[in-house]
# Entry
Amino acid sequence: MALKKSELYSSLWKSCDELRGGMDASQYKDYVLVLLFVKYVSDKYAGQKDALIEVPKGGGFADMVALKGDKEIGDKINKIISRLAEANELKGVIDVVDFSDEEKLGKGKEMVDRLSNLVSIFNSPELDFRGNRSEGDDLLGDAYEYLMRNFATESGKSKGQFYTPAEVSRIMARVIGVGGAKSSNQTIYDPTCGSGSLLLKAHSEAKEKTGLDLAIYGQEMDNATAALARMNMILHDCPTAEIWKDNTLSTPHFKGSDGRLKLNDFVVANPPFSNKAWRNGFNPEHDEFKRFEYGVPPKKNGDYAFLLHILASMKSTGKGACILPHGVLFRGNAEASIRREIVRRGFIKGIIGLPANLFYGTGIPACIVVLDKENAAARKGIFMIDASKGFVKDGNKNRLRAQDIHKIVDTFNRQMEVPKYSRMVPVAEIERNDYNLNIPRYIDSTEPEDVQDIDAHLRGGIPNRDIDDLGKYWAILPSLKAVLFTKAERPGYSRLLVEPPAIKAAIFDHAEFTAFNDTATALFAKWRKTHGPLLKGIAKGDSPKTLIADLSESLLESFRKAALIDAYDVYQSLMAYWTETMQDDVYLIAGDGWQEANRLRLIVEDKDKKEKPDLMIGGKKFKADLIPVALVVARYFAKEQAAIEKLETDLAAASLAMDEMKEEHSGEDGLLLEVVNDKGNIAKGAVTARLKEIHGDADYDDERAVLEAYRKLLDKEAEGKKSVKEALSALDKKVAAQYGKLTEAEIKTLVVEDKWLAALAAAVQGELDRISQALTARIRLLAERYVSPLPELARTVDALTAKVETHLKKMGFAW
# Structure
């Protein structure tokens, strides 16, 4: 069966649970990633001749499986990894952790159990990589990225620097134009490559857009992180990438035949911020590679050292992007001189200001400095973007959404000037500001202050200025304004014509809003009509990533010119649904085909994985992974569902009647008091026993009548529960049988029309509702703000004061 991304991620994270406690995330990540590497290469290359990775005898994952329960499992796993490393020149890469470390893994049986469980997790069907990669989809690479992101989150501020968020990596790859690569001889270089995520995103962008397999070069100073990068390259099908372990500034490894720095077509980097020890190991004043011709950075701050190294490593036609703290844009002294020289030479194409708290090594805001040597001589300005406000909270970090990434890339690559977001800043203006590149100096992204109108507070009315600020709505809904407002008694102010609670209805029911809603709905309907057949045409082996790229781009373009609607919000609705639901469905279909993906899955009990069943048949629990049971019921068994709902309504009515009777008669001296137990419940046995006890005694006629009525309700409730249970059981059997009878055409209708497109239609309608709600909320706020002018408030206070004084006089008090 094909692999669902959510199950793959869940299984990998479950493996981490086996290691928590003995070490922190910055340590146990190495164990998990090494096992992931061994499992992957074993599944992909074991038994193959002339494979890129040789899996030697006694050096594969199958050999680890055979060790489960072995008293020497730790030592023997080390030997297996060592054999694999020796066969593939991976010494110092995959053998960097010790699987017999008692301090981290426990002693004796604790270690044996922990490692045996860990191997079992990697041996599960969810982690079988032999037939689980759709063509062109880097499923394992995505899983690796998922792990790295979570490891970085758990490692905390001091140890998460090895990972550059994938969202930022994507932006950098797209703004340097690597998707326009012309030759497979072109190169991508990262001088501080960490785990290699930036390099791989740039490589992936080039391969997806051009099919070209660009050469990868990376250097990383930390030994363990360089090992991660090597493994990462192999796991992403880039085994020929060159990763070197050393200090880039003091000992750059990649050089040409003339001994100078190797020049690259594309350079990306996320160097350590404000490195105080950047001069260690060399003398920048006499740098043999002439990287500091524009100035030597401050002794205790290496930000510009890395930027200058990047520039020196770029061809004359080279493009680059570097993540740096905002301080590089405005700090003075030596850095100001370097900045002036770089700007004058036209090397900086653009600057993208990012939200704060995106990165795992620091919470400070950063920017992407985009470099371009090819067009430097003719450059007359620097394109700046303030993207600091586009993000979503994700735990204790901020994260860029798909819409934020797309907006940044679109705006930058198209050089679109957007108020409060982006502009092309002429070099002459920058020169007048003494080459200060601080983004707020050129883009004012602050929201205008919501000014209170003193005169309106004193004399009433809503300021026309506030109403005119809603001009984008009146441009589309011109006559609605006249329905909601009329002129006040004095110039410059208006009165609301409807009561505040009726504002929403006045907007929703207005013909112009209905027409606006219909226009936007028609845009989606047109997109739906075009892409419904595409979705129904998904075939085994298709690329889910290509599919979502085509779908999302076309949806974005469909809504680009829509009035009032932010096309990127609509785009985000699709991307969010893809992440939550649709991608798992598409991976199943692309892996198994429509019919196979539709099969009901028997739930195997697992104490660590509690799954809620969709159907119960003969005491067995089943899960419908592709088509929700509710959709099958709605399309094929609406009559049966209605009957069950009627039974449930009758059952609820009986239960309510019992509750009301109990509440009425269970208090002190109540007629049900004798049968209420300590927990406040009434059992049928207690009612029957009490009736038997007072049988024939006329003094208890009233109690007897209530008890008999209550017993009838108990019987009715029991019968109702039985009927509902039987009806649900019968429906489950019918539904299960229907799953087996569904044709491929019916499956496609249920999945594409009833599930995917229905959910997206609801999301688009949600965006439309949000527009009307925003207008309603603003008008209501203005109405309530100025509803009671000061004189009216004073009269109200006087009236209330008079009432209080009157009451006080009646009580004998006088002021």
Summary: The chain is about 50% helix and 10% strand. The chain has a mean pLDDT of 89.
